[in-house]
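User: C-alpha cells for both sequences below?

Assistant:
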Amino acid sequence: MPARNQILVFAKLPRAGRVKTRLVGTLSAQEAAALHLACLRDTLRMVETFGGAEPRLLLAADSRNAQRFARRLGLGQNWQVRTQGRGTLGARLARAFRSGFLDGAERIIAVGSDSPWMGARRLRAAFRALTDADVVLGPAADGGYYLVGASRFLPELFEEIPWGSGHVLAATLRALRGCGASWRLLPRDFDLDRPADLRRAERWLRIRPKCCPALREWFAERRGARTALR
C-alpha cells in the first residue's frame, strides 16, 4: 500500500501592510499584498499539479476568515482548509505535523508561498528523500528553508529555532544532530522576500515563461502601471 502523503501550505491572508513587508518601499503595501496573493496562487497550483499527496492549506486567520478566503481562491474539494492557531512559527508547524501524523500520514511536507517556482519535481524529490530519512529540508539563500518535511514527528525540529533570522537552517541541523535524526537536503533556492529577489524572480520567469502564471501576470501588470506613469 503506498505511503499516505500530506502537503501543508502555510500562508497569510493577502492584507496590505501585513505581508511582504520587507518589500514595502520598493513596492506599495497594496502591490506587496497582490504579489503575496500571486505567489500563493502559484504555490497552490504547483501542489495541485503534483497530485501525489493530500493537500492542506493552513491560514494565519480565524476560522471564518480562513473559509471565506478559501472560497475566494476557488479550491477544489480535495483541499482541507485549517487555521494555523497561535504561537511562534515553530509551535504552529509542530502542531500541524503532530496533527497530520495523528491523522495517519506517513510523510508530511510543509511549504510557504515564497518559492512558488520550486515545481512538482522538487516535491517528488522531497517525498522520495523521506523514504530513507527522518527529515528533508530545502535550504534557502537567506539562511532559512523553503521546505521542511518529516517521516515521523520530531518536536526537536521546531524547538528553540531563531525564526525570522538567517540562522534557521543551521539551528535546525544542530537540533537534528542533537536528537540523532537523519536528514536530506534539496537544492538551494531563494525566497521572494527582498528587492533583489524581485529582480531574480523576474529573470527566472524570462527563462521559464510557463512557470508561475499568476506571478508572471503580476510582473506584467506592474510593468504596465510603471509605463503608464511615465
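Moving on to the next sequence.
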Amino acid sequence: MIIIHVYKFLALLLSFFDGSIVFESLESKTEKQKPVFNKIYLEQTYKRDTWTMFQSHSGIKAQKWDKIQIIVDKTKSPYFATYKQLEGNEEVAFKADCFRCHSNGPRLIRPNFEKIHFSFKDKLKLARMNSIIKSYGVIKSAMPKSPIIKLKSCNRCHNNSGIRAPITEKNSQTALFLIKNQQMPPWPHKLSKKEEVLIKEFVYGF
C-alpha cells in the first residue's frame, strides 16, 4: 500500500537520528497506578529488526529494569514477530502477557510528554521509530487465538489483509484506552455511537 511506502521513505529521511529514547509511557501503569518508564532502542539488519525495551515499574532512577525484546523477521512475508524477556542475555519466563499490547509486533511509541522532557533530537528519533513501525504493515506472530473485535471503524486497517493485524480480546483494554484518549481510530475516522457501545460490551463482557 502507498501509505506504507510513505512511512518507509520518512524513516529513511530520519535514518541519521538513531539511538535510544527514554520516556514515561502515556498508557502503561503499574498495578498501583504508578508511572511506567521505558528505554527503547532498535538494531537493524537486512534480515531482521530487534527492538529492545528496558522497563521500570519503580521509577526512572530504579537500579534494575526488565529487559524485553521484539524481533521482527523481515525475510518472511508478511513479517513475523517473536517476543523475548531477558536477564542479561539469557531468555527467561515472561512476567507479563506481551500479546495484551502487542498483537502486531512493535506498536507505536506514545510518551507522556507532560511528564518528561523530549529534546528536538529525541522527537526526531521517536518519529523515525514510529515511521519504521508504521511501515511494517501486518505482522504475524504466534499469538493464541482469541475473539476478534468486529467493528467497521477498526477493521478498515485491522484485518488479515490490512495494514495492521486484527484486534482481539487480548488487546481489548489497550484498544479501549486508545479510544478513550482519542488515539484511535486515526483521523478522519471515528467510532459511531453504536460502535462505542459495542466495544464497551466487548471489553467488559469477558
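User: Anything stand out in the second?

Assistant: The first strand starts at residue 21 and ends at 29.
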